[in-house]
């Protein structure tokens, strides 16, 4: 495996000269075409870094300067990169993000456009902006979904400045102390993912998963809790849901959890879990999927708070016991 390391800098990053400001990235995502890294930092600035063309042929350590910086001025709750992102086609390099107490926005970092379009999500009674905690581009239509408190909203990308054209309450009544009187799920929708079959998986900080037809516009197919009596399957809220390429399995990551739970959607039950993630923290620790080949399947990758990246082979994942990582390696320089 060819491992490359990156040191990312900006004009305000003066740690080497003894400056007092040391920022950290709260999230970083690679574009679908593998050419860009987009980061969200504690200083509320979105930065876009372009990877060098000779990435695999050059040195193993690369110093990167941002290609674009957008100072949002407010905390950013969620981001999503367009699945059509192509560095060499500026009409596709779109980033969706939700700043606090403002409309949802789309920017074009490589074209230098901080706001290409905005989409308000407004509470009907208070008339205040609702800030989504999760965002996802739809695959079958030119639209996107946003998850907020007991609500999934769908927006038309071509109708800038318009509110959602479809809203799905995850609970029939927020006043019910029980989850919808036994139906639905209550809580902030903190994670969204759409399968190859168009099923939207929505996870909440209250440790529930909802599955919805037609990319979130259809009926609820199932709602279940990821809580368990097993002491190894602890967690304090879903932070990410991730589909297998076949759409049969759903991977669920939580904060304060060292495992990734696996659910078989055909039977709506837990299939197994991946352990040894080293993610006992309240911070979001993302997981990702790397497709290998039809014969070898795919790998689930996860970063740990110890600076290591771990991977689990799909061929090793069994329902009997928690699966230990298939391999791991230090991701930080100096490890």
H/E topology pattern: EEEEEEEEEEEEEEEEEEEEEEEEEE
Structural class comes to mainly beta
**Which strand order does the major sheet show?**
2-3-4-6
Question: How large a portion of the residues is in β-strands, by DSSP E?
Answer: 35-45%
**Radius of gyration, in angstroms, nearest whole number:** 20 Å
Oligomer: single chain
Span between N and C termini?
Answer: 17 Å
Count every helix, treating DSSP H or I runs of 4 or more residues as helices. 0
Helical residue percent band:
under 10%
What labels would you give this structure?
four-stranded antiparallel sheet, 335 residues
Short précis:
The chain is mostly beta strands. It is 0% helix and 42% strand.
Write the topology of this structure:
Layout: E1 5-8, E2 25-30, E3 36-41, E4 45-50, E5 61-64, E6 68-71, E7 76-81, E8 95-99, E9 104-108, E10 113-119, E11 134-137, E12 143-148, E13 151-156, E14 166-169, E15 189-194, E16 200-204, E17 208-212, E18 220-225, E19 238-243, E20 249-254, E21 260-264, E22 269-274, E23 287-293, E24 297-303, E25 308-313, E26 327-330
Structure in words:
The protein is mainly β. It is 0% helix and 42% strand. It is built from no helices and 26 strands. The strands form seven sheets. It has a four-stranded antiparallel sheet with strand order 2-3-4-6, with no helix packed on it. The chain has a four-stranded antiparallel sheet with strand order 7-8-9-10, with no helix packed on it. The protein has a four-stranded antiparallel sheet with strand order 11-12-13-14, with no helix packed on it. A hairpin with a 4-residue loop joins strand 24 and strand 25 (308-313). The chain is globular, with a radius of gyration of 20 Å. Residues 14-20 and 176-182 have low confidence and may be disordered.
């Amino acid at each position: 495996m060819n491992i490359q390391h990156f040191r990312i800098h900006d004009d305000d990053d003066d740690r080497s000269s003894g400056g007092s400001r040391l920022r950290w990235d709260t999230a970083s995502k690679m574009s679908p075409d593998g050419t860009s890294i987009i980061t969200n930092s504690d200083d509320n600035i979105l930065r876009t870094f372009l990877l060098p063309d000779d990435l695999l042929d050059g040195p193993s350590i690369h110093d990167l300067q941002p290609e674009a910086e957008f100072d949002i001025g407010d905390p950013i709750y969620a981001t999503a990169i367009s699945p059509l992102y192509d560095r060499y086609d500026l009409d596709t390099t779109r980033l969706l993000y939700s700043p606090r107490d403002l409309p949802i926005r789309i920017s074009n970092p490589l074209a230098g456009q901080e706001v290409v379009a905005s989409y308000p999500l407004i509470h009907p009674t208070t008339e205040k902006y609702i800030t989504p905690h999760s965002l996802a581009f739809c695959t079958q239509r030119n639209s996107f979904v946003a998850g907020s408190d007991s609500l999934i909203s769908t927006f038309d990308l071509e109708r800038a400045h318009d509110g959602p054209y479809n809203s799905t309450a995850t609970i029939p009544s927020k006043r019910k102390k029980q989850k919808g009187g036994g139906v639905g799920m209550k809580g902030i929708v903190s994670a969204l993912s759409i399968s190859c079959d168009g099923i939207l998986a929505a996870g909440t900080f209250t440790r529930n998963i909802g599955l919805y037809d037609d990319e979130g516009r259809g009926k609820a197919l199932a709602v279940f809790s990821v809580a368990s009596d097993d002491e190894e399957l602890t967690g304090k809220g879903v932070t990410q849901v991730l589909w297998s390429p076949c759409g049969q399995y759903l991977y669920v990551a939580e904060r304060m959890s060292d495992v990734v739970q696996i659910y078989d959607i055909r039977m709506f039950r837990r299939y197994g879990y991946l352990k040894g993630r080293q993610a006992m923290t309240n911070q979001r620790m993302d997981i990702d999927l790397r497709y290998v080949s039809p014969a070898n399947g795919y790998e689930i990758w996860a970063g740990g708070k110890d600076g290591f990246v771990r991977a689990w082979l799909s061929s090793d994942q069994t329902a009997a016991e928690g699966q230990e990582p298939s391999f791991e390696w230090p991701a930080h320089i100096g490890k």
